[in-house]
What we know:
The protein is α/β, with parallel strands linked by helices. It contains 29 helices and 19 strands. Helix 7 (119-131) crosses helix 8 (137-143).
Amino acid sequence: xxxxxxxxxxxxxxxxxxxxxxxxxxxxxxxxxxxxxxxxxxxxxxxxxxxxxxxxxxxxxxxxxxxxxxxxxxxxxxxxxxxxxxxxxxxxxxxxxxxxxxxxxxxxxxxxxxxxxxxxxxxxxxxxxxxxxxxxxxxxxxxxxxxxxxxxxxxxxxxxxxxxxxxxxxxxxxxxxxxxxxxxxxxxxxxxxxxxxxxxxxxxxxxxxxxxxxxxxxxxxxxxxxxxxxxxxxxxxxxxxxxxxxxxxxxxxxxxxxxxxxxxxxxxxxxxxxxxxxxxxxxxxxxxxxxxxxxxxxxxxxxxxxxxxxxxxxxxxxxxxxxxxxxxxxxxxxxxxxxxxxxxxxxxxxxxxxxxxxxxxxxxxxxxxxxxxxxxxxxxxxxxxxxxxxxxxxxxxxxxxxxxxxxxxxxxxxxxxxxxxxxxxxxxxxxxxxxxxxxxxxxxxxxxxxxxxxxxxxxxxxxxxxxxxxxxxxxxxxxxxxxxxxxxxxxxxxxxxxxxxxxxxxxxxxxxxxxxxxxxxxxxxxxxxxxxxxxxxxxxxxxxxxxxxxxxxxxxxxxxxxxxxxxxxxxxxxxxxxxxxxxxxxxxxxxxxxxxxxxxxxxxxxxxxxxxxxxxxxxxxxxxxxxxxxxxxxxxxxxxxxxxxxxxxxxxxxxxxxxxxxxxxxxxxxx
Length: 671
């Protein structure tokens, strides 16, 4: 690497000489020491993001043009000096690397001169780069079949960073830090193509195939709480191989202990119970196991998860959380702890820890950091061991007002009138996990519990409601929905909520209750509102009874809400613009999900409901009495002004609440 006189460098940068230059101090050009990488130079400030003036990324004539508007832009944007080209190669963002200027041409020329690629391959790569904004020339060359380990050392040399290989044959001792990798996150390393290699004093060395991604370094430093981070270049193949080793290998218990150091056994309080003196229960009662289980529950509650999946296999124990309807792999405790963790959960749920051959269901009531949670637990024997799923029933999640669920103003007014009606059936329909229970509970909460007798029949009782009588179904002893509903009718009820209308007997009793002066709320599993009425007819009810008893049907879905920290508007493509025009929306710009740290790079945070509300009147009751087919009945409802699920979703797209793709994803069957 040649040495440069500082006066020449400053001249190339368009900066006038100062009294502190070597020319003024009398120092020789080489006295400033060997050239260092930019990240090394910033160690003293303990920040991977140095202050960067507006023109710091521009060199030579371009910097002079900004400093002096009289200087005209040169025909070529590439710096002419070697120093300018080198600095441009280091500092130019990836989006600028797509142009075959300065650094990109130099990489290609050097690869040709060293016999790594041919001139024809370079010409082809440059053509691809020109046609593909954001594409780096080295990536194109590698995609053409040139080996990564031959191309990336040249890129590293020009960028002034070291190039290293990971010895995958040595497994966990191959030159990367498995402990730091777990802290950084397996999925994060895989998505960002980065891997922590080692620690040198106060500095962490990380490997990446991108030599100039200072924003990646800042993310890594923040996630690892590091003082300083330095980059070296490694191949994508080495990173993938190292991640495969970590994914297939067994984690060390010491690593987990470090993560759990701030978790106390008392953080999750459960009801004490008598424990038999078996080896398995002794193992499940040990401190590391208790802290691990507590950590899993605490983390799930903190991240807003609705379900916890604990999935053991021969070589890996996987813990996944369902957040906003999507599953995310969150942690990988040591596989050897699988039986102890599951046994601990069984003890908490008062299940038989010795029985592993059949599924078991239980419930855990606990307090996490002062917040009461109910965990509905289900076990399932698999070839890798018992799998456990915990449904988190958070009382705070159910204590929401109808106004907060996402109803359009017009729809909310009509729905409240239906719930306040003195008699009739009001149905909520949708697939499992679409928010039906939340809507029903929120509707019950608006009623006056002091002046009314409100009773429910549920299977199971998910949330306990003050001032409301709740009855649990027990099919094994003959306590089904129909039996419980008959008993409730002798309890002088005003409002009855039936968890689900599953059969003709339950449907008949519900209709009888509605026609004799009671308000009945219930659910069905149908795709839309009109098909709920035809479903009741198919169950065995007379069409005229369905029309007379049912006041309204609400179909609903849950869609992911755009993250307010990173959502953005972009110009849609031609096909999407046409679709937006057909929906009556602005086709110039549309909201899109970007992704940031606050939303786990998904672009979404939380969920909101979309609704399709059907109300019956005398005219529609006459149509129902004629028992129309589903398609015909749906057309009639839309012609009479019913807003469909997709229509309500598009209103939320226009308001910037969610995206077009999210609405299409959940309403495809209703199109």
